[in-house]
Amino acid sequence: MEFAITQEVDTNASKKSHIIQKVSDDLQNYLKEKNYGSDIETFLIGFIGIKIKLGYEDWYKERKPRYIAYKVSKNRITGLSMETIKTYSYDIKFDNHLYDEFVYASDSDSKRILAMKILDSFIHLDKLSKKIKNFDKNKFKYDLEKYFKEQEIINNDL
To answer: Is the residue at 156 inside a domain?
Structure first.
């Protein structure tokens, strides 16, 4: 399975960008040989790390979960065709309080906050599209929680 965390961050959160990328890369390596069914080949989480100012709440909304079985589109810059196949994606975003905690915490605490947010976001998997029939969401959730515990990113108490 392919896995990635994309980033949309402001200046303060960009200081933690390396942590987000490291978690993304580590999870990609951990999941690349795993198979949870034939309906999801790519799992994307969009991370929105932007502190929202009053009046700008609508600018940076979390995108709802989306499943694309197959789609061909053209890259606006290169003009090349791009295929999207069996891709599931959604966004996660911190409220302003959790944003501050993430940005100003130590790197290990920021990584823990991100991991907890990722695990919490799996609630989306409980409402998968009817198009997704062959995906073992429970094993996927279990494996990621186990990974975060083995890496000592989160406590074993959870």
So the answer is: no
